[in-house]
């Protein structure tokens, strides 16, 4: 019998329950996947707490990697034994699962399962942030909050490889050193420095074309003040809490600013979009321009402790739950 983490009511990490799960055979268009590794992401916390509500009960988790055990009718691009990975499909905290085959991508031999599980959601998020929403290039200066986190480290490396100057906020000197070693030219320790004031010192008073903010409530308003006229605010998370409602006329007062609240699912909604995004990610990781750091590993059954550490900001880079 397989096992999975299931949530019957929203709340703290204690609601993550390790239970038996009967997976069954794949239906048309599905694959039965024996998972080897599962990625941990802040969206898992949002689902667990109910900030992003899901019908109860549910199995959390949005990305993983493993081996195809069985294929359903109509599946032609995958066969038993294929190594595959996915992101943005709920239900990852499981030893084995059924999943739509068109959401899976084959893994190149150069990328191991733990790396794949750690990078799919965060890496494809980084890709749409800096290649789709705003095409970062030489001469750009960007701000990325939580620069030592999973998405942050990938954005720092990738943007630097594209020729951009990267400014990033972090919570400690240790995280500043990590971010700096991975492409962040100017880490700012926000716990002792006003990041907006420090940013303007770094740039000589020049504001930025884009800010990437996954922190939310604690950074949002000051982030707006880091943007040049017609600058773009990309709010893609809320680790400090949701941004309170505010008067949209503020955007005009601060220079006709633009704001977007994207989600990965939209940017990989079709098979061609998914394949394009994943191919770019595999290429940049395979080339060595971006390194994926799996800095924490927990057994899947210990997901509650992983959530505690993630929320306490004790983690850096990527975290993987092993099966």
TrEMBL record:
Instruction: Identify the domain of life.
Output: Bacteria
Gene3D superfamilies, per database record: Medium-chain alcohol dehydrogenases, catalytic domain, NAD(P)-binding Rossmann-like Domain
- A GO molecular-function descriptor: NADPH binding
Q: Start and end of every Enoyl reductase (ER) domain?
A: 11-321
GO CC terms on record? cytosol
Keyword Oxidoreductase, does the record have it? yes
Record InterPro entries: ADH-like_C, ADH-like_N, ER, GroES-like_sf, NAD(P)-bd_dom_sf, QOR-like
Pfam families, sorted = ADH_N, ADH_zinc_N
The UniProt record lists the keyword Cell membrane: no
Keywords, A to Z, come to:
NADP, Oxidoreductase
Q: What name goes with this protein?
A: Quinone oxidoreductase 1
Q: Which organism is it from?
A: Sideroxyarcus emersonii
